[in-house]
Amino acid sequence: MIMVPATDLANLRTFYLDRLGWKSWGPDMPGSFMLRAGTAVIVFVPRNYLAAESGIDLSATPRAINAIFVDTKADVDTQFAFAIAAGATVTSPVRDRDGGLYSGYFSDPEGNGWEIVWSPVMRPDADGGLVIALPRKN
User: Fold this and answer.
1) What is the pLDDT of residues 37-86, one digit of tens each?
2) Pair 25, 36: CB distance under 8 Å
């Protein structure tokens, strides 16, 4: 589970559920909401509550950059364009990157960082979890 501090849960809920079309996961809870991304669960929690509970200074964003791995380079282009059309902000456009990666970075309405990425060695499997397929050495 990845806990993401949020300032405006209603705006984030609209962005992820209504605009991006992601599905909420778990019971409907006032004051937070959860998403399932492959085998990971992402929960958006009110910033002040999470700061008080964790004792961690949450004044800086983003605290992490979340990555969604896809099957093809075309999937990167499609999902990235969809996120931008939904209101995400481009922080680094889609392009070829180190290690043979192909990806683009964006932030959601509260500045949380996301990368949509295709990798030549890491791919989502049937349940959405990552698998590593390193080339065999002879």
Assistant:
1) 777 888 888 888 887 776 767 776 656 778 889 999 999 999 999 999 99
2) yes
Identify the bridge partners of residue 131 per DSSP, sorted by sequence position.
123
In three-state form (DSSP H/G/I as H, E/B as E, the rest C), the secondary structure along the chain is CEEEEECCHHHHHHHHHHHCCCCECCCCECCEEEEEECCEEEEEEEHHHHHHHHCCCCCCCCCCEEEEECCCHHHHHHHHHHHHHCCCEEEEEEEECHHHCEEEEEECCCCCEEEEEECCCEEECCCCCEEECCCCCC
Token code pair at residue 68: 């969604």
Neighbours of 35 (CB within 10 A): 21
Q: How far apart are CA 114 and CA 92, in angstroms?
A: 10
Q: Tokens standing for 11? A: 């705006």
